[in-house]
Amino acid sequence: MATNIESDIDRPQAREIVARVVTMQPWLREHQAVAEQQRRIPQDTVERLDAAGVFGLTRPKRYGGADFTTREVHDVFRTLGAGCGATAWMVWAAAGGNMWSLAFPDDVVAPVYESPWVGNRTFAVGGTSRRMSGTARQVAGGWMVKGVWPFATGSVHASHGFLAVFHDESDDAKVGMVLVPKDSLVARDDWDAMGMAATGSQTVATDGELFVPDERFSTPERLAARIAELTGQGRGPRRGGLVRSLVTSTGVALGMADQAMEVFLGGVGKRSVPYSPYANQIDAPVAHLTVGRAHTRIRAAALVADAAVAELDRRDVEGLDLSEREAVQFHIDVAYIWDACASAVETLFRASGASAIAKRQPLQLIARNCRAGSLHSALNIDTWTENVGRALCGVESGPQSMSVLERRA
Asked: What pTM did the predictor assign?
């Protein structure tokens, strides 16, 4: 099947998408609470994002998708995060999962991206164990797959999924990836979390065994080789892989911190401080300390993000890949940014008084979303502080996963 390659003139431009998202921010903020109640991004929002070109980030370059630099992707996510953190997270997760769609044969992938669709086309789910993943057994012409995949972010609005499967009962290193239509899976609608509730990160599962043709099955080694080939040909994706995806996620955290600061400053001149000598919070020195402390954390996090983004873009231009040690450093940078942003938002939330706990107030939702994002295993500050410390001390450790394809029994 012929691929539908658009010219660069037809491709979305990052500055245009950022400008459109800025105009959407009032809508996104107004519908944050609705999205949380529905436990998914409302369809109206998805349609507006689609019209703004946002889902070009989740489409392969060779099918007309955006081919943005790390800086451009990061800035789109930061602008989205300043409107609704959960919406930005869903788009980011779908864009990261799109890395796998680049690696399957064109005659398999083309129908996914050439058919009419509103929203993200695909989602990807790894697995931390056989219990939280799938298994595959080979049969004539393909594989019989069964399993349960939690936290399938982006699956609500997608047409296809890329799912991790163990295909050798005796070897947990034998992991594969299958591409399946979403309508061949059962969605359990079980996502009910204290933060990022609106992402619709539900569990998907097979109903018994599902037949997957050979051409829709691959392995990490084959996928990586194909991605390297496409990158070398300029057909995408850009260099950096999972690390690049995680670095762009910091835009989501910084966007939420931006919104929290705006909300706090919007009320500081009106808020009273009961049981104190100050008629308004803006007159209290502790409020100035609070704002200064949160601002400094956000600014420091943004500077670390800027350095990481710039370094990845430099390496992309020069055709340089990351070493394992360098990848660990990027991981801790990302974890630091998420933790700093979550801490800054929590500082502002605590200083907002008891009225801030009301569900109609946005700060409590931003605080829960930002902290929930920081607890993701790939973003967890404790895990990556230990990992970088171990590397600095030259202490060897056992195998650790650096990929969405976990390999623990």
From this structure: 0.91
